[in-house]
Amino acid sequence: MEYRKINGIEDPLFDEMHNLMKKIFPPEEVLEFSLWEEPLKDPGIQVYAAVNNGEVVGATEYRYYQEMNIAMTDFTIIGKEGLGVGPFLANQRQEHLHALASAGSQELLGMFAEIYDPYRVESYEFGGIKPMDPYVRREVLSHLGYKRLDIPYVHPSWNNDGEAVPGLDLCFMPAESHLNEVEAALIVQFLETYYSVLPNKPEAWLQMIQDLKEKEKVALLAF
Q: Which pTM does this prediction carry?
């Protein structure tokens, strides 16, 4: 299996990946094809495909913020079962992120991720791919070392329509597994940076940010 970087929407691998996204994720979570042109030119956004015998069987997008020394996993897609796509992507991503941190003479502080809470959202089938089932994904993230941030979480719809998307948890995987809290200011800085591309923020998101600004730290909880 190959770990191939996608550099633009003209890349045939991107067309395959985008079709996988539409198959796996709900519509409000998938950025329209042409709107990917600028993000894929951004050197801070890493998009890689898992290619098996010339076919895209999975993909992951992530980014490293050097000034905060943290990463964000935007998504992980497993398109076929029984190939070890999930571990392959996770291992390749982790190696790359540690290399990016080391290039700046830093040790990666940790990585954020959003995950659906299947106890609140049960309607998504995620393309019928069992490894993408929210129950399975939460267990996988837990085994990787992710913990749930103790906040009521919403995020702005990628449709940029000002709607709040509920039913998710914001998680964090600390590099030091014994850590059980995160500085609230770091969460605010990350979220404001990450969602700066969406000008239409829902009121619920703005209120969440304001509430975080009034905290010092946020607890990390087990799933």
A: 0.84
